[in-house]
Specification:
- With 94 residues, the chain is an alpha+beta fold.
- It contains two helices and five strands.
- It has one domain (6-93).
- It has helices at 6-19, 75-93; strands at residues 27-29, 36-38, 43-48, 51-57, 64-66.
- It has a three-stranded antiparallel β-sheet with strand order 3-4-5, with helices on one face. It has a two-stranded antiparallel sheet with strand order 1-2.
- A hairpin with a 6-residue loop joins β4 (51-57) and β5.
- α1 (6-19) runs parallel beside α2 (75-93).
- The N and C termini lie far apart (33 Å).
Length: 94
């Protein structure tokens, strides 16, 4: 079994954001300013503790909520969970 790469994880989360009509980038520059603003609703991969987690941006100041409540896990485990969630999201959209 091949290892899951960061690029694969980022790609599936990008597709998930598109499917759910969520912002695809976690942060954007405030027009005419050097400040950043968080895109509420964006899902992204958080990297820490040698693992990964799927988080959702919940405030414009950058607070996040962990989606699966499993902590940081190996890339393969998160990828499989996201694939399952992506299938569910596709069904809910119809």
């Amino acid at each position: 079994m091949k290892a899951i790469t960061e690029r694969q994880l980022e790609g599936v989360v990008y597709l998930l954001n598109k499917q759910l009509d969520r912002p695809v980038k976690p942060w954007e520059r405030v027009e005419g300013s050097a400040k950043l603003r968080a895109n509420v609703g964006n899902l992204y991969v958080d990297y820490a503790l040698g693992g990964v987690s799927l988080v959702e941006m919940i405030t414009e100041t950058g607070a996040v909520d962990e989606v699966f409540l499993i902590g940081h896990v190996p890339k393969r485990e998160l990828y499989n969970r996201i694939q399952g969630y992506f299938g569910i999201a596709r069904l809910e959209k119809k």
